[in-house]
Each structure stands twice: as structure tokens, then as C-alpha cells.
Amino acid sequence: MSNDVIVVPTGTANTASVLAAFGRLGVRARVSTDPDEIGSASGVVMPGVGTFGAAIGEIDRIGVRQALLERIEADKPTMAICVGLQMFAETSEESPGVRGLGVVASDMTRFPSLVAVPQLGWNMVEGSDSSRFVRSGWAYFANSYRLATAPGGWIPAMATHGGPFVAAIERGNVLACQFHPELSGPWGLAVIDAWIDATKGTL
Amino acid sequence: MLAPRVIPCLDVDGGRVVKGVQFSDLRDAGDPVEIAASYEQQGADEIVILDVSATPEGRGNAVATVAAVRAVLSIPLTVGGGVRSMADAGRLLDAGADRVAANTAAVERPELIEEIAAQFGTQCAVISIDAGRRNGGWEVLTTSGTSRTGMDVGEWATRCAGLGAGEILLTSWDRDGTRKGYDTELLSSVSDLVTIPIIASGGAGQAIDLVAAIHAGASAVLVASLLHDRDLTVADLKATMTQHGIEVRT
Predict the structure, then answer these.
(1) Which residue did the predictor score with more confidence, B60 or A146?
(2) Which class for A28: exposed (0-12), middle (13-18), buried (19 or more C-beta within 10 A)?
(3) Which of A24, A42, A112, A121 is the most buried (most CB within 10 A)?
(4) Out of B74, B123, B249, whose CB is closest to A118?
(5) Could you tell me if residue B249 is inside a domain?
(6) Where in the sequence is the domain holding A71, given as residue range(s)?
(7) H-helix segments, A25-169
(8) Is B88 noted as a catalytic residue in this protein?
């Protein structure tokens, strides 16, 4: 088992920011597309900006859908960011006909047009007392689609933009953030740091 | 509720932060890594780096600067200046920029916005518009304000939003570097036309100017000389905004 945190490249643009955040926390992280490595790593990050369809397409192109599903099912430490969270859903209005990972029985929908879309900037996240990873605080978001309600069996953190939406969900060692912890200042680094503790627990 | 952002802007030439009025009379203002880190500590919500290098050699340094700043920065980083192609955008994003701002090249070839949004996401595609006043309105300027295009700013902003731009960095060329306050008429006029967020730029001279820009419809405010001259910190600016009932990230 590799001690490095593995970042799955989804063909989109925030890989450098994610790697830099791990660097600031003194944790070795690197990109890999190897399904075996993604299955066995102590921690795996699914970053993502760009469209739902493009990110899912990349997951399937490099052939890691099954490895990701199995490690999430086995409760191995996994962190999904932004479009990474959206890939957990079954579908997204952004890319009709594209099949998500289906980790949660939910569909991503666009923010209502009464608010600025994309949601771009800092919004207040209300954490749950039972969360291991996410406290209340200001988080940086950059998204047009969101999970409107929390799926059953997951601990949610919520925020508001044209109504409540899911800022993060967690279940055991699996954390999915709609916000960008790697861009959310010291508060965001604390989220990543708490998740790193989970990766150490499985070694 | 989204908090309005305070965004320090660093003009970078050949790996150093420079400052000047309307891109002339540039003088050295320090190391971009140190300056960006200190603004984050003061409470900056994002950093904008504008590569103002006049030479290809200087442009080459921009990627190294972005990577060095990214290594220390825990907030979003937007980079503009010299973004002329998808290859330029890709290089800056790979180095650690979160968003890229296109200006002159997008006027010459608007499809660039569409391509950046399609490949990297709409949040990544910032359109930088330099606006110059003309009879009763504003005209799009390019090439660091030296070329007049004859295009109406409102029409161009609307078109960019339609092409997939996720945000407009709207600079008043008449106010830039003057410290006379943002052009709030310009901000109101464009924010009435588009639903994507607008970063107000050009003219911040005192903290109350930021309040006026937000009230005029901006989602974020760009500040440069106000901070570089060390008259005020980001925290000072945010304190004034809070006093005027604007909720900011603390």
C-alpha cells in the first residue's frame, strides 16, 4: 500500500492547487491513473472543475470507475472536491445522459436563476456537530450545479445560495465537498488535515 | 449568502511586482510570493496576478511566478495578461492558477472564451474588459488601453456571458490609477445587463469606494495601489465594509 495520497486526474484544472495544499500540510501527494494504486492507496482525492460530463468521461477513459466505487464502498479514505462531489450523483442537469458514479441516489440540479450563477466566492458553511471533518466557517465555492438535499446515510454540511444546498457530505472515511478546501484558507486546510488523519488511521 | 470579495491585484513584470499609473512609470514594489502571502494573512479573498511584461522573456517568468505563489497561497489565484490561446491558459492553470482572464485576445477571437469555458469550466473563464468613456457610454479598449475598438462595453459583456464567461473583470480606464473611486455608473450599467458576477476595478482610493462599488452591483472589488502603498490593509478595508452593513468573510 502506498503511503502517498493519490490524486485522480479528471482532465480538469485544479490538480495543481490540490497538490500544493497537500504540500503545505507536509503530505506527499501525486497524480496516478493506475486502478490498482487508486484501489489500495491510503488516501485518494477526486478533484474536479469543469463539466460533469467531461470529468465522468475522463474517469471512464482512464478506467478507474470500478476502483473508485470499490474503495468508497469499502470506506477507504476518499475525498472528492467540487465536480468530484457531483460525480457521486447518478445524473446531472449539466450533462444529460451521462451516468455518474451513483454513490448517492441523487441528481445534480442547477442553482435557481434568481441568484448569480455560477456561485463564485465565499459562502458560510453550517457544519454538523457529528462531522469529523467540516466545522462551520467560510468556504470558497465555484459551481453552477448543486445537490439540493442531503442523501440519506450521510452527514451533511449545508450552505445557502437561492435556497439551501449541500456544501459537503461525509460517511465514515469518505468526504465529498462542494467547496474547494484547497482554496478556502486556513479553514479549508483544517478540513484537509482532518481527512489526512483518517488516511493515517487505515495504515 | 455570498460574501463580496476583496481581491488584491499584483502587476508582475519579469517576476517582480511593479506599480505605476496606467502601466507607465513602472517601479519595483517587491516579491510576488511575499506580497501575496501577506495579503492572504490580512484577509484577502482571492489574488489576481496581471502579467504586464513587455518582453517574451518576461512572459516566460509568469509561469514560474504563478507556481511560486501557488505553493504558499491557500486562496484562489486568477491570472491575466498575455492569455492569448488555450495553450497559454493551460500553462498557467497547470502552474497553479485557478482561473485565467483573457482580454485583447478574446476581443480578436471571442471563441477563446468558449473554448476555455468548455475545457476548464465556466468558473475558470474570466473576461477582462477595459472600459473607456465615450459619448454617453463606454467603449471596449484593448492592448493595455492603447486601442479603441468601437465596441460597446455592455454589448461585449453580454456577448461574453453568452459565450460562457464566468466572471467579468471590469476596469474603468478613466479611473485606473487615479484613486478617485470606482466608476459606479459603469458598474451599475453592466451589472443590469448580465447575471454573471463582476469584479470592480480601477480607481479605489479609500475604503468607502469599495462600499460604493458593491452597492453599484459588483460582486468583488480589485485593489492595488491602495494596499501596495501600505496606507491600508485588507482587514481595514473589510472593517469599513462591515461598518456599512456589507457582510464579508472574516
Answers:
(1) A146
(2) exposed
(3) A121
(4) B123
(5) no
(6) 5-198
(7) 35-40, 52-61, 65-73, 83-86
(8) no
Residue A18 has pLDDT above 90, yes or no: yes
Residues 6+ apart with CB under 8 A from A149: A106, A164, A166
B14: left (phi over 0), alpha (psi -120 to 50) or beta: left
Alpha-carbon distance of B232 to B250, in angstroms, equals 16
Instruction: For A49, name the nearest residue in chain B, comparing CA atoms only.
Output: B121
Q: What pTM was estimated for this model as a whole? A: 0.94
| Residue A1, pLDDT above cutoff 60 | no
Q: For residue A79, which amino acid is it?
A: M
User: Complex ipTM above 0.90?
Assistant: yes
Interval B108-157: pLDDT, tens: 999 999 999 988 888 899 999 999 999 889 999 998 888 899 999 999 99
Residue in chain B closest to A9 (alpha carbons) equals B94
Residue recorded with cell 484547497: A182
Q: Is residue B248 part of a domain?
A: no
Q: Is residue B250 part of a domain?
A: no
**Residue carrying C-alpha cell 463564485:** A120
Q: Do B220 and A185 touch (CB under 8 A)?
A: no
The domain spanning residue B153 has which CATH number? 3.20.20.70
